[in-house]
């Protein structure tokens, strides 16, 4: 328990990436097992634990106020796992590339068709412009459906690096989608 507290303080007070990696290596397998026991999905459990650790890093300056970091991570993982189950029950699992755009987005007008087309083009452009390693990781995870550990093995990098590269790719795609969604809204407001 003392080791966790030391790592927690190193992350909170010094933004120590090494301590963050040690924390991940120390707890990620157990958290994935815990998440899997709830979700029954290995891929889902990997992403959930990845998201839990991303939240830890994002809130690192507030970590010193958490009394029991291990319990906090388990609670976060549990909540994310329950959210995952709820989301999965509302929509069946599908690989995005195999589903025609028309079935994902209800296209009732030429304007909606244009927005959908622009959205897919934006995503493709962002993925194309990603740095080489980030692009490879994203394509292997999202397009090939590989698990983080499989991608790490194939590219000879750590699971931690895979998780970080996926986070970078997701943020960049999210920003591109925000722009695509905002442009028609801005035009409608100005008209």
Automatic annotation (TrEMBL):
The keyword Cell cycle belongs to this UniProt entry's keyword annotation: no
Homology family: Belongs to the sigma-70 factor family. ECF subfamily.
Protein name according to UniProt: RNA polymerase sigma-70 factor
Natural source organism: Lacibacter luteus
Stretches assigned to the RNA polymerase sigma-70 region domain: 26-90
GO molecular function term, any single one: DNA binding
Stretches assigned to the RNA polymerase sigma factor 70 region 4 type domain: 122-172
Organism domain of life: Bacteria
Keywords: Sigma factor, Transcription, Transcription regulation
One example of a Gene Ontology biological process annotation: DNA-templated transcription initiation
PANTHER family, A to Z: RNA POLYMERASE ECF-TYPE SIGMA FACTO, RNA POLYMERASE SIGMA-70 FACTOR ECF SUBFAMILY
Pfam annotation, one family: Sigma70_r2
């Amino acid at each position: 328990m003392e080791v966790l507290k030391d790592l927690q303080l190193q992350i909170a007070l010094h933004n120590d990436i090494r301590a963050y990696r040690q924390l991940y290596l120390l707890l990620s397998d157990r958290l994935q097992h815990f998440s899997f026991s709830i979700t029954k999905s290995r891929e889902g459990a990997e992403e959930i634990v990845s998201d839990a650790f991303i939240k830890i890093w994002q809130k690192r300056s507030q970590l010193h106020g958490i009394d029991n970091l291990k319990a906090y991570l388990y609670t976060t993982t549990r909540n994310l796992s329950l959210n995952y189950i709820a989301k999965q029950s509302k929509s069946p699992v599908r690989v995005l590339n195999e589903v025609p755009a028309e079935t994902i987005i209800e296209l009732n007008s030429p304007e909606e068709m244009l927005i959908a087309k622009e959205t897919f083009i934006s995503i493709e452009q962002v993925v194309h412009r990603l740095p080489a390693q980030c692009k490879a990781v994203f394509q292997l995870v999202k397009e090939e459906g590989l698990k983080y550990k499989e991608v790490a093995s194939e590219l000879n990098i750590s699971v931690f690096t895979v998780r970080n590269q996926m986070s970078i790719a997701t943020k960049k795609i999210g920003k591109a989608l925000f722009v695509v969604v905002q442009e028609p809204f801005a035009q409608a407001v100005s008209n």
